[in-house]
Amino acid sequence: MLTIILNILLPPLAVYLNHGVGTTLLISIILTLIGWLPGVIHAFIVN
């Protein structure tokens, strides 16, 4: 439940909590900076 909320509100934080620091986190940060929705979609896919 917490992961779903974090996926929506703060996608990079949700990815960080599940995968740690790495390329997945970097991709999530870049997608979130491009636009909020791509970051959310990526967070739901990888989590």
What topology emerges from the helices and strands here?
Elements: H1 2-9, H2 11-19, H3 23-34, H4 36-46
Q: What would you note in describing this structure?
A:
Helix content is 85%, strand content 0%. 23% of the residues are buried. With 47 residues, it is an all-alpha fold. The protein contains four helices and no strands. The model has no long low-confidence stretch (mean pLDDT 95). The protein has helices spanning 2-9, 11-19, 23-34, 36-46. It has one domain (2-46). Keywords: Membrane, Transmembrane, Transmembrane helix.
Low-confidence stretches: none
Count of the separate structural domains: 1
Class computed from helices, strands and strand pairing: mainly alpha
C-alpha Rg (nearest Å): 9 Å
Estimate the global geometry from the Cα principal axes.
Answer: globular
Helix content: over 70%
Order of helices and strands: HHHH
Biggest sheet, open or closed, and with what strands and sense? none
Number of helices: 4
Distance between the termini: 12 Å
In terms of DSSP E residues, the strand content is under 5%
Please state the average pLDDT score. Answer: 95
What's the count of strands?
A: 0
Salient structural properties:
PMP3; transmembrane helix; globular; mainly alpha; 47 residues
Summarize the structure.
The protein has 47 residues and is mainly α. It contains 4 helices and no strands. The two termini are 12 Å apart.
